[in-house]
Amino acid sequence: MTLSFPSYFVACPHGRPRCLFTSAILLLGVILAQPSWAMHVVFVSPGKLDEPFWRDADEGLQHAAASLGIELELLHAERDHLAQLSLLRDVAERPVEQRPDYLLVTADKQVLPGQLELAEGAGIPIFTAYNGVQPKERDLLGYPRQRFQYWLGSLVPDAEEAGFLSARALIKEAQARWPGTEDDVLELVAISGDRGTDSSQRRTRGMVHAVSRFPRVRLRQNVYGDWQQELARYQTPILLDRYPHTRLIWTGSDLMAFGASDGVRASGRVPGQDVLLSTINMTERATRALLNGELHVMVGGHHLAAAWALVVLYDYHNGVDFAESDGLEMSKSMFALFDQEMAQDYLGYLAAGHPEVDYCRFSKVCNPALKGYDFSIGNWLSAARVATLRSTARGSALGDDPNGVHDAGNVAEQRQ
């Protein structure tokens, strides 16, 4: 017998034993019996399997799925927007009994119209996260549950808020570092994501809005790094040569921030001293860079948008329709400006082995008294602290023997 496995058998980040244990259980279920899941969701990720932001997004999805008893299938387009369509087409063409209950997509790179057509044709409910409908697409797509009846709705982080918060904090840092009058100009250059993604455009608008509030600051140029570290590394020395008095570099993502940091060094300057940098994304490397001064500003939290979408779909699947309280197209504040304490908390969670956060606490079905969804990163960090404390206490109770049993994954491995 030949068995084929979806990507959730191989997509467990960080090589955690818990993921190995979960995969073993799933494999046993395939061999011995049909798994009895409450619902089955396929997520089509635009990112790469090893890309830090999307790796963190995958982990959040896996934790949410485990908490809520959801069968989760992760598919990665590897930054190929056409693959986002082909992957979804493959799912839509499966035999009816093998199709998921829901599709989760990101509305990335203007592929949403094609994805909605495929889902509608296959009769699979589809939900969008991360990006909203662009104005030029609205006439074609309309609104959820209208022309496309299987399009349930969307959940979008307030990306304009992220751009604004990060730029404002960066400018305030610079004004404290280099005080002066309105005549003492602070020059800023920006490296945005791309021209075709809603979240990128909104982050940039937020940045421009923040700059407009500070008379001393001049935005000299905004370029597009296409979310790539290498491209930002190439662009930065050119920008610094063109605008030699630049003190501030605003970036739309962590990888572009690291590319910009490399470019600053290549130009003979020191990041955090001669030039201050900001970023959006709370990856582990970015968090450490914030603490060591390579980055001066970090805003994050939106990597969990897909995990939050699973919570919304879980509630919908169990009879609580988000449209009644939050509308069909939800925009939620998911970002926070990280300070030293928040950064240390997050690194503590990572050091504890990424313990599984309980997403049932965010669900209206699990908690009928909830009146609205709180998808803020502060709310998630509170849950992560609980998970960290439980993990630490469990580890202490089991002893510090490196060969000892520390979680269910190790139990499974020792029994083999």
Can I get a quick summary?
This protein is α/β, with parallel strands linked by helices and 416 residues long. It has two domains: 39-156 and 302-380, Rossmann fold (3-Layer(aba) Sandwich), CATH 3.40.50; 160-300, Rossmann fold.
Explain what you see.
The chain is an alpha/beta fold and 416 residues long. It folds into two domains: 39-156 and 302-380, Rossmann fold, CATH 3.40.50.2300; 160-300, Response regulator (Rossmann fold), CATH 3.40.50. It contains 15 helices and twelve strands. The chain has a six-stranded parallel beta sheet, with helices on both faces. Strands 7-6-8-9-10-12 form a six-stranded mixed beta sheet, sandwiched between helices.
Radius of gyration from the alpha-carbon trace, in angstroms: 22 Å
**CATH-defined architecture of the largest domain:** 3-Layer(aba) Sandwich
Could you tell me the number of beta strands? 12
What fold name goes in the CATH topology slot of the largest domain? Rossmann fold
Distance between the termini: 23 Å
Give, in spatial order, the strands making up the sheet with the most strands. 2-1-3-4-5-11
Q: What letter string, H or E per element, gives the SSE order?
A: HEHEHEHEHEHEHEHEHEHEHHEEHHH
Shape: globular
Average residue-wise pLDDT: 88
Percent of residues in helices: 40-55%
List the helices and strands and how they pair.
Blueprint: H1 17-32, E1 39-45, H2 52-68, E2 70-76, H3 81-92, E3 102-105, H4 112-122, E4 126-129, H5 135-141, E5 151-157, H6 159-177, E6 186-192, H7 198-212, E7 217-224, H8 229-242, E8 246-251, H9 254-266, E9 276-280, H10 284-292, E10 297-300, H11 305-317, H12 323-326, E11 329-332, E12 336-337, H13 340-351, H14 377-398, H15 408-415
Parallel strand pairs: 1-2, 1-3, 3-4, 4-5, 5-11, 6-7, 6-8, 8-9, 9-10
Antiparallel strand pairs: 10-12
Protein name: Sugar ABC transporter substrate-binding protein
Pfam family, one: Peripla_BP_4
Family: Belongs to the bacterial solute-binding protein 2 family.
